[in-house]
Amino acid sequence: MRRSACGVLGAALCLAVLAAAASARAQATAPAPAKPAMPPAKARPAAPARGPDRLEKLAAEVVRSTREYRASLERLLAVYENQLSMAVQNLEVRREMHPPPELGLRE
C-alpha cells in the first residue's frame, strides 16, 4: 500500500507541475514586433559637414583631448611620487627595526 500511495502522490505532483506550466504558457504575452534595421531615409540625421572646417574642429578636439590627458597624467604622477616616498620611508623604518643578522666567518 505504501508503494501505491507514493505512486499516486508522484503522479499528482507531476500533473500539478504540468498544469502550472501550461497555464504560464497560456498567459505569456506575444513578443514585441521587431524594429527595422535601418530607419527610413527621411528620419536619418544629416551627414556631418566635410571639408576644412571639419578638419579644423577635429584637430582642435585632438589638441584639447591631449592637453586633458597630459594634465591627468601629471596629477597621477604626483600621486605615484607621494606613494613612492611613503614606501621608501616605510622601508627605512623596517630596516631599522629588523636589521639583517650579522653572520660571522667560520674559523
Write the layout of secondary structure elements.
Blueprint: H1 2-27, H2 52-97
Characterize the structure shown.
- By secondary structure, the protein is an all-alpha fold.
- It has helices at residues 2-27, 52-97.
- The protein starts with a helix and ends in a 10-residue tail after the last helix.
Summarize the structure.
The protein is built from two helices and no strands.
pLDDT averaged residue by residue:
76
Helical stretch tally: 2
Tell how many strands the DSSP assignment holds: 0
Structural class: mainly alpha
Residue stretches low in confidence (pLDDT < 50, at least 5 long) are none
Main β-sheet description: none
Query: Considering DSSP H and I runs of 4 or more, what fraction of the residues is helical?
Result: 55-70%
Q: DSSP strand (E) fraction?
A: under 5%
> Order of helices and strands, N to C?
HH
Gyration radius, rounded: 38 Å
Keywords for this structure?
107 residues; mainly alpha; 2 helices
